[in-house]
Design a protein that fits this description.
Blueprint lengths: L3 H15 L9 H24 L6 E5 L5 E4 L3 H24 L6 H20 L3 H19 L5 H31 L19 H18 L10 H4 L5 H9 L2 H17 L1 H4 L3 H23 L3 H22 L2 H32 L10 H4 L1 H15 L5 H15 L3 H29 L18 H19 L2 H11 L5
Antiparallel strand pairs: 1-2
Helix pairs in contact: 1-2, 1-4, 2-3, 2-4, 3-4, 3-9, 3-14, 3-19, 4-5, 5-6, 5-10, 6-7, 7-10, 7-12, 9-14, 10-13, 12-13, 12-18, 13-14, 13-17, 13-18, 14-16, 14-17, 14-19, 14-20, 16-18, 16-19, 17-18, 17-19
């Protein structure tokens, strides 16, 4: 396909979403059809771009010297863009049912659709400047989604999310400046762009420090410790928003940016074996244990899943911090598989809240018998997050553990212990929900409306597709893992 189609894929949901409040739809159904068509058309364009990659980049704006905003598709772009394009139409379909009784629905779908285009901009970015530009835009278009309900909790959560994101972006910008100064280019190049002639001696120590700073900057959106308190609070947003925050758009954008920073900007060879590698890996290991520990104590359903995300996102970063090709394979595996498992679990919880209004673990006793499909799918997602063999989560955790063992890094061995602790605690905090739903305390009678049951097809179809994907990835992951190996080997530029 022509390079111009990359810009079309970015602009179509941005412009198509921006006009939603302006179009005089006579019926809600007409708005739903319009939005789904825009999203589906965008996904089809992305699919065409991934199947027929443009051979060259597409410059959007040329600034001074070598600075420009330009789009290009490499192997890593294909993974992130493909993930976003696959999940967004299903998430949008789910949203139509969920948002039926919400206020300011048009403005919700406006920002929801615009976010799709901005996320694709991050995926298609040719260089660090372009990615940073779309990364900042992502903050601006997702703040209104977190703020949507306009409650006091939503206002505080959106304010915290904005402050944290802008602060993290400032640290990431420092990394960009130093890459401009000490790099041969700011274009993403597998193996790094630092100029060997100027990175010796004291410069090396300084650049390693800058890498740690930039890692923490991008790590704000990836919810690393101690910059993750915004994520559980953002759960006040409607469930379709929190699902995308946790599974596709925001936190995955942070992880994606760190992969770019490590393997395509500073270079894994430059960082591997240094104190900087130990620092960032230590941060990640602490985050893994912290997230699952907090999830174990949390009684609110969405916040429990939020802390689970904090832990699982650091699985991806753990693979990145190993800084070997196999580590990158593990990171990419978990980025894709976790997205499917987490959006599935969030949408199940959202269906429960939509049908019953229940928000806490102790309120779902016996719901499994009233909503068997939802809780059956939630069980599959829970087992996948635990890493049960035969499901998607096992594949990514196996790749991560193998990479850690083969790295000969002592701290990576500690990371394996963190993965095991996380798997155990995940089993406790996820299966406790399943057990309460299907095997309630006989002395407690659930306070439920008489018509409580599984939601409509617009919610169930995405859930069934996600559950099927978890099973398929778990049983037949060889093709996609082989693709990740090609990327990790630097063969897909």
């Amino acid at each position: 396909m022509k390079p111009e189609m990359m810009l079309v894929a970015v602009l179509l949901p941005v412009l198509g979403g921006a006009v939603v409040p302006l179009i005089p739809f006579k019926k809600r159904t007409h708005m739903a059809v319009y939005i789904e068509c825009v999203v589906a058309a965008t996904s089809l364009i992305v699919a065409g771009l991934l199947l027929n990659r443009p051979a060259e980049a597409f410059p959007i704006v040329q600034f001074v010297n070598n600075l420009s905003l330009s789009l290009e598709i490499d192997g890593l772009s294909m993974v992130f863009a493909g993930l976003v394009a696959a999940l967004w139409p299903l998430a949008t379909l789910y949203s139509f049912e969920y948002m039926k009784h919400e206020r300011r629905e048009r403005y919700f779908f406006m920002f929801y659709t615009i976010t799709y285009g901005i996320t694709l901009g991050i995926a298609f970015a040719e260089d660090m400047l372009t990615m940073y530009f779309f990364y900042e835009l992502l903050t601006l278009v997702t703040v209104p989604l977190v703020l949507h309900t306009l409650t006091r909790e939503a206002i505080l959560a959106s304010r915290k999310y904005l402050y944290y994101s802008l602060g993290g972006a400032a640290f990431a910008f420092i990394g960009l400046i130093f890459l401009l100064t000490y790099g041969t280019t700011i274009n993403f190049t597998f193996g790094g762009v630092l100029d060997p002639a100027v990175i010796g001696g004291d410069k090396r120590s300084m650049l390693l420090l800058i890498y740690c700073i930039a890692f923490c900057g991008f790590g704000v959106k990836a919810a690393v410790c101690p910059f993750n308190s915004w994520l559980p609070q953002a759960g006040v947003a409607p469930t379709p928003v929190t699902a995308l925050l946790h599974a596709v758009a925001v936190v995955k954008a942070g992880a994606f940016a760190i992969i770019r920073l490590t393997y395509y900007s500073f270079g894994a060879d430059f960082i591997r074996g240094s104190w900087a590698q130990n620092v960032v890996m230590g941060i990640v290991i602490v985050t893994i244990v912290y997230g699952c520990s907090r999830a174990l104590k949390e009684t609110h359903l969405k916040r429990r899943l939020a802390y689970s995300t904090i832990s699982n996102l650091s699985y991806i970063l753990f693979g990145v911090c190993i800084m070997t090709p196999l580590g990158l394979v593990g990171a990419l595996s978990h980025m894709v598989f976790h997205a499917v498992m987490k959006i599935c679990s969030f949408f199940c919880v959202g269906a429960v809240m939509y049908k019953t209004g229940k928000q806490y673990v102790h309120e779902i006793d016996g719901l499994g018998r009233r909503m068997p499909v939802v809780f059956g799918i939630f069980t599959i997602a829970s087992l996948g997050l635990m890493g049960v063999p035969g499901l998607a989560g096992f594949i990514s955790k196996w790749n991560l553990a193998t990479a850690a063992v083969m790295s000969d890094n002592v701290l990576a061995y500690v990371g394996i212990g963190a993965l095991l602790i996380s798997a155990l605690l995940t089993a406790v905090y996820m299966l406790s929900i399943v057990i309460r739903a299907f095997f309630p305390d006989k002395e407690k009678k659930p306070d439920l409306p008489g018509d409580t049951g599984d939601p409509g097809w617009m919610m169930l179809v995405p859930l069934c597709i996600f559950a099927a994907a978890i099973l398929i990835f778990g049983l037949h992951s060889a093709p996609i893992v082989s693709f990740f190996q090609e990327i990790a080997g630097g063969n897909l530029k």
